[in-house]
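Follow-up to my earlier ticket, as requested here are the two runs.
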Amino acid sequence: MIEFNPDGSIKLPDKILKQKRGNEFRMKNGLCVTIKKEVVNDRSPKKCILSVKLSEKFTDDSFVTKVYSQFMNASEVPSKLSKKDKGEFEVEVGTCFSRCKDCTKLVNNFREFLDGNVIEIQGSCSFKGQGRVFCYEDHFE
């Protein structure tokens, strides 16, 4: 059932509200990165933008270029990193057959570098990934 706030907006479920508050807390008080995926052009030539926002606790943002350069050395997709503001970067991901795979690799590189402190927002990206849950019976007898 849908509930409404007094101002007419839709009331968010408690689970989503709790997650949103947790993400805000992580961005204010911890070393965390928010990555928002947006599809800019869904027709050929396809192009996506990853908006990378650092939390307030970061004093040095040089790790972003370090993680990005490691990604560039191992990826097929053409991409470009640009700094928008203090603590805000934008990665433009160009058209390539492995665009979504390489984009996921970049997000995972940030996740690995920051010990999992990455908040990933799907935005207009429709890529779901493998989505398979590990099942012991599938791999072992």
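Run two:
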Amino acid sequence: MVMRVLLLSALLMAMLSSCTMTEYPLTHTNPLDRIFDSGDFRLMLTGESLSSTTAKLTWGDVYDVKLKTSNPVTSDNLKINGTNAAQLLYKSGSPSTTDIAAVKTSTALGGYTALYNLVAVGSSYAGTHTASSPQHKGTYIIQFSYSYKNSAGTTTTGILFSNFVVIE
């Protein structure tokens, strides 16, 4: 009887521990997943081709990677810094080495077209956009110029990026 209780307890613990994943992982179990970080923030963009003429882009909330919590950063302390400063950007083709270097150094991207301006809905920046032909195939990324007030009350400004999404 004691053995059954221990076995059942171990099985229950294993099941519960497998349910603790968040939709957007905040820890780095794979060194390659650091590509989703932009400075101290993570903003994940996904995309799918819906038809031969449309693509759907979806992005989640912004997370502060240093806080290591599953709670998103809200619009109370993360503000868009400037007019049209948080945008879903597009260009035909794949990202260039210049694009990748700009993202790594948090400097503005050039050569992209703004498809959609991000806005806070409630306190969340999550959203979706449907791109139609001819902008249904190519490279997408979110560029977000921000002003962030941390828990200590210090305000910083900069640019954060989502990951690149290429739809062919």
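The only thing I checked on run two: The first helix runs from residue 2 to 17. Let me know what else you need.
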